From TrEMBL:
Pfam families in the record: Methyltransf_11
Organism, scientific name: Sporothrix stenoceras
Methyltransferase type domain ranges (all copies): 72-165
Domain of life of the organism encoding this protein: Eukaryota
Keyword Endoplasmic reticulum: no
Protein name per its UniProtKB record: Methyltransferase type 11 domain-containing protein
Matches recorded under InterPro entries: Diverse_substrate_MTase, Methyltransf_11, SAM-dependent_MTases_sf
PANTHER family hit by this protein: METHYLTRANSF_11 DOMAIN-CONTAINING PROTEIN (PTHR44942), METHYLTRANSFERASE TYPE 11 DOMAIN-CONTAINING PROTEIN (PTHR44942:SF4)
Lineage of the organism: Eukaryota, Fungi, Dikarya, Ascomycota, Pezizomycotina
Gene3D superfamilies recorded: Vaccinia Virus protein VP39
Family under the similarity heading: Belongs to the methyltransferase superfamily.
SUPFAM superfamilies registered for this protein in UniProt: S-adenosyl-L-methionine-dependent methyltransferases
Keywords attached to this entry: Methyltransferase, Transferase
Amino acid sequence: MTRTVTADQALAERHEAEVNADGKRDVKYAFAFKNLDWEAYHRFRPVYPESMWKQWFDYHRSHGGKFETAHDAGSGPGTAATVIGQHFQQVFVSDAGASNLATAEATLTPREKFTFHQGPAEKTAEWLPPASVDFTSICMAFHYMDSAATVRAVAQTLKPGGTFAAATYGFRLLFPGQPRAEELWYKATSRETLRLMREGKLFPAAVRGLARAMTGLDFVAFPSDLFEKGVRRVYVNVSENEKRPLYFVDNEPGLWEEAQTFVAPTDVYEYIQDATWGRQADAAWLRGFLASSQMGFDDTTWTLDEWKELEAIVGSGPNGTIAVEWPVAITLATRKADA
């Protein structure tokens, strides 16, 4: 007898999951896939530029932070940990996904510098000692976490004066000097994301993560009892008057809800332009970037009139390419010394 698998079941079965009391597979972590082509992921995602690392480590140094122990939470295959390991004596690498962590463990060197732990960031304080970490980072993963629980768990493990740094880049690509290309990208991605939601190809945890990511990192609160005032909220390649710079999906009640934001009056917004958060891209790369979201973009997407027009614009550029940039949200917070 042939088993019928629905779209949401097919997506769920690609993930690591726990079996609940009802015997159903419970997918708790939206980017904990059983098998993911991380080489393709890196090929179609931005490289965290040197400017970001300089900003982070300068900030850490300016608050008296030491470069002894770091923790990269939600590390995936260890993308950020690779760089962090060049600056800290010891790095803890954690991820909720067993396959993700296995990839990091097979990749990161020298092996003796890294300690690996499978578990969600929300439970960081269960395995790292209090006030034991100088620097904690979360790169392109916060939106899949319970932010309040994660912030408190990380705070417990940070030393007084320690740094909590995070970054999220948007899927609303920017095309400098090409407003029509930006319009077409938005229309195509919004239309297709809403289709995937209607078809049940995005399960609830993925939709919630998507909604959070589109706020940048404004869905993350940094309680004043744990972190110093003046948390920096840095927006890269975003103008101050842009209200929804990372949104790439139209509102449609009943399909998804916007995430609540938690920005304190004492948080400080900064806006900078940084072309190193960009690259030249051809049409194949644009397809690969969207596909790397694992949301289900496919041949249906590439046949849209908007997508065809976008590819025509790209193809008319130098060597069939176009310049793209990412809008990026960064937060930098310092653990209170008297907390």
